[in-house]
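To the team - manganese (II) ion complex, inputs and output below.
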Amino acid sequence: MNSLENEKVDDYIFCGDMITDGFENNEVLDLIKNKTNNVVAGNREVSLVNYDGSSWINLRQWQPMLYVHNNLSKENKKFISSLPIFKIIKIENKTICISHGSPYKDRDLVYSNSCELFNKLIEDFGCDIYLFAHTHRPFYIQYRGKYFINCGAVSLLATGQLLSTYGILTIDHEKINYDYIEQSYSFEELKTYFLKSDYYRSCGQWSNLLIYMLRDGFNYNCDFIAYLNEYSKGNNQVNNEIWNEKFKEYMKIKKLKIL
Ligand SMILES: [Mn+2]
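Output:
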């Protein structure tokens, strides 16, 4: 996020999932709110907004979400409730459709070869540029004269590289240019920062998976949930005993020392 401050740009666009896998959630939202109105909700913000206020309590599995729910300021809760799942803006004479998954669904998985969806978007929205996130897999393509872009993730890529990524879009009359930016980070610094946090003390297991994800560029968090789902046959809510046992088992299989 700091490197974003150094870029000389006229405006910012945030494609959602700004919070929850980590701490300083209020700080992140405060920074974003002060920069721009070009913000949409990702599935994380949608889940927080729709939380019923009780079902996450006492389940280790939901501790990270509960932590954020309990620590978000009233103002920031109101802010995320106000976010749409897509937004269309105009810069110069170009229209840009901003979304997290897609404008249809916050969890849609859009890839560079999702041509059927691109055709539908062109038909339904008629924009010049479409921005996505969610998959943590960056791409940039021109298709039928329109631009389809996923800038990756400022937190973590899903491509096995230890990089934060974002992009700079330049619109100059008819000309559209996109620069994809990769930024390396110091794993040791992040690890120390994580281990000192309140978030780590509240959600130790999830933090362990996040820390190793930062080290290896492999999404242990999603992989662990998949491992758990296989055991629970898709029941996405397990009790703490099973969660603990499966976590230990998983860490052992992956040869990861519990921090
Ligand atoms: Mn997402």
